[in-house]
Structures are given as structure tokens and as C-alpha cells.
Design goal:
single chain; HIT family, subunit A; binds guanosine-5'-monophosphate; binds zinc ion
Length: 112
């Protein structure tokens, strides 16, 4: 828990979100500025700043998050989806609490 972290505040319930999944380690909620018809984020409850701050201790957590991606994507009606983990300022990361973006819906996404 980091007191000035927006995602920690969402996890605590201090900031509202369109949350649709919660378990003991992870939550998932819709992005406030979606870039696709369906755009949500899977976020560990543990405050870890980024993927670059993960090590072997986080292996199970990372595996759990990745395995949730197709499950939650299907529940949200996606047949295919794109995942994105922005890491560091140069990687376009804006919120420094690890999260996996999942988006899709509507049309085939352009090639990156
Ligand atoms: P990043 O660029 O760090 O990978 O992504 C951060 C994402 O968090 C952005 O897509 C942004 O729209 C989203 N975001 C920022 N603040 C909030 C918020 O208060 N609520 C929700 N639901 N999403 C947020
Ligand atoms: Zn946090």
C-alpha cells in the first residue's frame, strides 16, 4: 500500500471504479479513458511499481495475473484481445502501480 498511489486508493475503495473482478490478490476494473470498446486493467493488490520492479518473489502473482487475462477477457465478451504492460516513463507508464491493460472489441486491432 502506497498512500499517494491512485490504484492503491481504488483497491482500498477510496476512489470509485468500475470493478468487475476481485480476489485475494488481484482486482480488475475498466480504464477511465478507454482506447477500445472494452478496456480494462488487471491490478495486483500488492503495490509494486512496475514490471521492472518484479523478481522471483512475484512469479506466482504474475502468473496468476496472466492466467486471468483470457478468463476475464472472455467474461467481458472478447473473442480476441490485446494486452499491454507499460513500464517506466519511457515505456509510457503513467500510473506507477503494476497493471496489465486488456483491450479489444468491435473490430480487428491494427498490427503494432
Ligand atoms: P499506464 O499508462 O500507466 O499504463 O496506464 C494507466 C491507465 O490508468 C491509463 O490508461 C489511465 O486512463 C488509467 N487511469 C488513471 N487514473 C485512473 C482512475 O482514477 N481510474 C481508472 N479507472 N483508470 C485510471
Ligand atoms: Zn499502489
Amino acid at each position: 500500500m502506497s498512500t499517494d498511489c491512485i490504484f492503491c486508493k481504488i483497491i482500498k475503495g477510496d476512489i470509485p471504479s468500475k470493478k468487475f473482478h476481485e480476489d485475494d490478490e488481484v482486482i480488475a476494473f475498466n480504464d477511465i479513458r478507454p482506447i477500445a470498446p472494452v478496456h480494462f486493467m488487471i491490478v495486483p493488490k500488492l503495490h509494486v511499481e512496475s514490471l521492472a520492479d518484479c523478481d522471483a518473489v512475484h512469479r506466482d502473482l504474475l502468473g496468476r495475473i496472466l492466467l486471468l487475462v483470457p478468463k476475464l477477457a472472455k467474461e467481458q465478451g472478447l473473442n480476441g484481445f490485446r494486452t499491454m504492460i507499460n513500464t517506466g516513463h519511457e515505456g509510457g507508464q503513467e500510473v506507477f502501480h503494476l497493471h496489465v491493460h486488456v483491450f479489444g472489441g468491435g473490430q480487428t486491432l491494427p498490427k503494432t
